[in-house]
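Support request, please re-run this one:
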Amino acid sequence: MKLPPGWYAVLSAADLKPNKPLGQKRLGEDLVFWRDQSGRPAVLKDLCPHRSVKLSGGEVCQNGKHIACPFHGFQFDSQGQCRHVPETGKEAPNLRVKTWQSAEKYGFIWLYVPKDDNETGSEESIPWFNELQEKKFCYSEFSESWNIHYSRCIENQLDYAHLPYLHRTSIGKNFDVQGKYEFLLDENSIKLVLKSGYFQFKFANIWYLDISPTLKQMIAFVPVDDNTTVMYVRAYQAFTTLPLVEKLVGKVLAASNRVILNQDKAAVITHKPSSSLLASEEKLYPSDRGIAWFRKQFSEKAVEI
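Re-run finished. Output below.
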């Protein structure tokens, strides 16, 4: 895949359990996620270099230090080095699995896409929204998988002109598509100020909607491959922190978000070509200024991974 460098939220941290490998396709590659002895995420290519079996079918061993291949028991550490071959009882310096720099923050597992093989990312540079760091907020989360390139999913959330059409029975009712709305653009983000609230996209793949002082939304758009996107959708609320009531409010907000997303999905998955970066014949209008900026930043920054 071609992607702009940076930190990508790729997995809900709640999905990665201790002592249990998890195989997922992300950023165009089959990966295995697991937690090491300190609980930190480790991410390797999901392929044993010995006989090309998926490591995700194996087990975490040595108290979290290694992951063992299910076929012959070869063990690899979090840096991808083979630390034990059962038939020799030794390490194998010539056997190494490709690894990804990873981190856990804000309830997500993040992967870093470097500009080149020599670059590493600082965890302090992981993007987020200050408004969501307030302790008063709690969130509910669900995920959706769409058969479309992630650029199309992002651009859907940058497009306000479709609201009174796709969402005429929900959030788009009475929306003034001819209104004057201000875009604030820089190399790291795209922000649109509405008459009430605003939304903001931050590279590499997170989006935020400020609805009210007590209700916020965010989405992580996860590139699976060139034709598949997983979206982690969160509703942050400060109505209540009572466990049972909080759970009920979360279900109501999730149900509402699913209705809205399904209205979007009906149109978005019909895009041709799948990637907006190949859509050179599209004629953009002033309301598409955020989309044009996204495409410009993506095209200028993207690297092959």
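The chain has four helices and 21 strands. The chain has two domains: 2-113, 128-304.
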